[in-house]
Amino acid sequence: SIAILLYLARKFKTPDHWYPSDLQKRARVDEYLSWQHVNIRGKGSKLFLTKVLVPLLTGQPLPPEKLEGVTEELNVVLKQFEEMFLQDKPFIAGSEISLADIVALVELMQPVGAGYNLFEDRPKLAEWRRRVEEAVGKQLFQEAHEGILNIKNL
User: Fold this and answer.
1) Domains of the chain
2) Which of 21, 28, 136, 139 has its CB surrounded by the most CB atoms within 10 Å?
3) Which part of the chain is the GST C-terminal domain (predicted)?
């Protein structure tokens, strides 16, 4: 999915902020896109699978201690994300939204869809989410996440 996003950004010459031509900003986007696979995506998907799909397929709830361990793994990478990538900037690459922000927030919506509000006690993360939603448009954001946010209705 990352490869196709980069291809589309180049092919259709999207506005520069999505995949910046400035080498330092682009390196920041690339750094996040490389890091997120085993961190945000890996831990967020694991929580989603553990909390929603495994119980759905097996008909058995997960033992609480297993869920606690998976949740703690996600909390560790969320802290790293805030400290390493958000820091004190509005977006990952600086003052404008980029592909890195879109990819990050999409991955974080899986645990939210599973019922884990990871934004609740993280004001920096919550503010970043608000900025990303505003940048893409709240209605579009809601439409794009309608399925995952209603997954428990299966």
Assistant:
1) 24-153 (1.20.1050.10)
2) 28
3) 22-154
Please tell me whether the overall predicted TM-score, pTM, comes out greater than 0.85 for this model. Answer: yes
Question: What percent of the chain stands above pLDDT 70?
Answer: 99
Beta bridge partners of 94: 91
* 2 token code pair: 């990352």
The rounded distance, in Å, linking the Cα atoms of 146 and 142 is 6
Closest CA to 117 of 66, 32, 125, 88: 125
Other Cβ atoms less than 10 A from the Cβ of 85: the count is 21
Distance linking the first and last C-alpha atoms of the chain? 26
Burial of 114 (0-12, 13-18, 19+ CB in 10 A): buried
Question: What percent helix, strand, coil does the chain show, rounded to 5?
Answer: 75, 0, 25
- Residues 94-119, mean pLDDT to the nearest whole number: 96
Q: Is 50 helix (H, G, I), strand (E, B) or coil?
A: helix
